[in-house]
């Protein structure tokens, strides 16, 4: 299945007196980049959570935020962290003794230091049931994220396939137009020579030689064949995905399509050909933009 790199998912689970909420957001990135934000008491779970995310995320930057709320013990009193109190007092004493900063040392000043008073059970480690809830919440968030990425990826796939159909039509017009180039070159060259050398007999063999030279220099048949092959490969990649990321492979095909289109435009100075190549480039650029969003 084809996935976009942008999405959102959320999971909530409860167990053992804890309510855990996990939110996962993803945006474009060249590689898989998972960033975890957890409360201090879950810091030892960060590596495990990242590994679990990487089983789902193949490409893109994913920000995962974990929130832990204790649903029991709310009536218990807040906890005074004595080590934080002592550290705050030392810091205030240093400001007074070493820097000469004077000021009242009151309760409001002391309570302004982070961690002096902590909510009940805040530092309590996760139990086995709570750890299971954490994993369930994460899996639910990743499932929602993946579902959203699949939905957007399918929309991008449909849009790109529609553009491929238009490009196939334009390449068909180029191919049909190329068939009449020799006759148009012969007529154009004959008229040009006649206007410059009025009354002078033109050697038909010499004229045919010059026409053949111009036709050979402006022939873009090989480029048309390669364009058709690249478009067919693009269609096959989008219609029969093998489960592997398609973004980088599609980006390579876009580069090849752009290169062949440029070559066609440089070989022919014909107005109709120029218009067709400009139309191709416009579609290719749109596909390039869409490919940047695909995993």
In short:
This protein is an alpha+beta fold and 295 residues long. The protein folds into three domains: 7-74 and 125-148, 2-Layer Sandwich (Ribosomal Protein S5, domain 2); 79-118; 150-291.
Descriptors for this entry?
single chain, 295 residues, alpha+beta, 3 domains, two-stranded antiparallel sheet, 9 helices, 14% strand
What's the N-to-C terminus distance? 10 Å
**Quaternary organization:** single chain
Global structural class: alpha+beta
Order of helices and strands: EEEHEEHHEHHHHHH
* Strand line-up of the largest beta sheet: 1-2-4-3
Envelope shape: elongated
Number of domains: 3
Q: The biggest beta sheet, please?
A: 4 strands, mixed
What portion of residues belong to β-strands? 5-15%
Radius of gyration: 34 Å
Mean pLDDT: 86
Spans where pLDDT lies below 50 across 5 or more residues: none
Give the number of helices: 9
Helix residue percentage: 55-70%
* Count of distinct strands: 6
């Amino acid at each position: 299945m084809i996935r976009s790199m942008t999405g959102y998912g959320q999971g909530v689970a409860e167990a053992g007196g804890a309510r855990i909420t996990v939110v996962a957001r993803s945006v474009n990135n060249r590689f898989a980049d998972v960033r975890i934000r957890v409360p201090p008491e879950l810091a030892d779970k960060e590596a495990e959570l990242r590994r679990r995310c990487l089983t789902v995320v193949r490409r893109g930057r994913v920000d995962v935020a974990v929130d832990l709320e204790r649903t029991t013990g709310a009536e218990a009193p807040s906890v005074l962290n004595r080590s934080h109190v002592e550290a705050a007092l030392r810091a205030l004493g240093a400001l007074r003794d070493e820097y000469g900063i004077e000021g009242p040392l009151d309760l409001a000043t002391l309570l302004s230091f982070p961690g002096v008073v902590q909510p009940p059970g805040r530092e309590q480690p996760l139990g086995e049931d709570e750890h299971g809830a954490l994993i369930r919440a994460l899996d639910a968030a990743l499932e929602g994220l993946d579902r959203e990425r699949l939905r957007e990826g399918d929309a991008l796939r449909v849009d790109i396939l529609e553009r491929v159909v238009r490009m196939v039509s334009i390449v068909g017009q180029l191919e049909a137009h190329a068939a009449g180039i020799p006759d148009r070159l012969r007529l154009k060259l004959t008229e040009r020579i006649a206007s410059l050398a009025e009354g002078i007999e033109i050697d038909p063999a010499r004229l045919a030689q010059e026409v053949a030279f111009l036709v050979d220099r402006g022939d873009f048949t090989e480029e048309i064949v390669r364009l058709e092959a690249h478009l067919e490969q693009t269609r096959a990649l989008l219609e029969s995905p093998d489960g592997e990321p398609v973004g980088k492979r599609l980006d390579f095909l876009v580069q090849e399509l752009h290169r062949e289109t440029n070559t066609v435009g440089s070989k022919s100075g014909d107005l109709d050909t120029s218009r067709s190549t400009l139309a191709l480039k416009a579609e290719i650029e749109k596909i390039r933009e869409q490919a940047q969003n695909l995993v």
